[in-house]
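Known limitations

Structure tokens in this collection are predictions and should be treated as such. Users comparing against experimental data should check residue numbering before alignment. To illustrate the layout, the record for Lysine ketoglutarate reductase trans-splicing-like protein is reproduced below. The input appears on top and the generated tokens appear beneath it.
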Amino acid sequence: MTSIKSLRWLMRKKSGLSDGGKSSFKMKQLPFLAVLCTIMLFIVYRTTKYQYHQEEIDKKWSFWGQPKVYPSTSGKLKGLPRGIIHDNSDLELRPLWSRSNSRSKAVYSNSNLLAVPVGIKQKQNVDAMVQKFLRENFTIILFHYDGNVDGWWNLDWSSKAIHIVARNQTKWWFAKRFLHPDIVSIYDYIFLWDEDLGVEHFSPSRYVEIIKREGLEISQPALDPNSTEIHHKITIRARTKKFHRRVYERRGSTRCSDLSEGPPCTGFVEGMAPVFSRSAWYCTWHLIQNDLVHGWGVDMKLGYCAQGDRTKKVGVVDSEYVFHQGIQTLGGSGHRMTKKQGGVGIDVRTEIRRQSTWEFEIFKERWNEAIAADKNWVDPFKSDQRRIRKRRDTQRLPKNNI
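Generated tokens:
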């Protein structure tokens, strides 16, 4: 019996020594674990900071303000190392040779772009326009719809411009094919103007300063009230204002009031002299239809590309205005009558107008079909339309019912 008690006592003693040894071992491990945790936290901190730093660098060098994304067609580019792929370009002219000390990274001198469809008959007017924009360090691109490029080489600035030739094509045809957003991504603003605009009272630098300050993503200069051709009242210059975003009209079929929340009363510019921010052009380029070259109907939908509330992001600048001469170019007065295969003569301008009207109807149909097909699309201005109808219904109620 005594031996059993002695054995139990020895076992308890041994167990106590064992527990004490383990506790002692654990106590010795604590400093080591603390150091290890500190090292791990430091590594996590450095890794996170590095990733954040890299994201900021990517955003800085991405023209669209987003981290660099490699092309989705990477499967077709698997033979190339990823770092060699650049998904943006520009319209800057490059020298065939340069001094060794100037071969470092390119510095872009021009931050805005002027693109104009031109014919030789409007050479004098285009010359006056381009000279103003060149003084403000704009990149100039001329779309020659009459095929005559040689007639422009005697102008001093002609060699500084980019010339693209395609006979009898419209401004929107050229823009869709040669102003891809990835190509014009270095430019803050894209001026897509007609050739028949007088710029005597227009300063490109002052204009850009105004639209930047007022946050206008889509804009146009106001039209001189004495212009030869004016289609919408909102485009007419208001003499007492620097800019305006809406117009009031009580006459005619289009009534514009404070209740009006869409074009052509507000959130509207016309297609003759639009100016787009980089982001707005990215959206507008996709809105332009590849085959509907006259662009009818596009101006009514530009507000969807305004990068926000079109009643605030779209406007007309009054202090910098232009004179619209209203000269018909494609198929204009200088074109003769042509003949069909049957020998029947036709008026080119009449046929162009018919084509434009047909394209306008097709564009509206495509818009409605696209809305019906895209179940996830939400009209950002639909709530405004419901609110307007509610206001009108309230105003029509008899006072004794209110």
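For this record: The radius of gyration is 33 Å. The chain has a mean pLDDT of 82. Please report discrepancies through the issue tracker.
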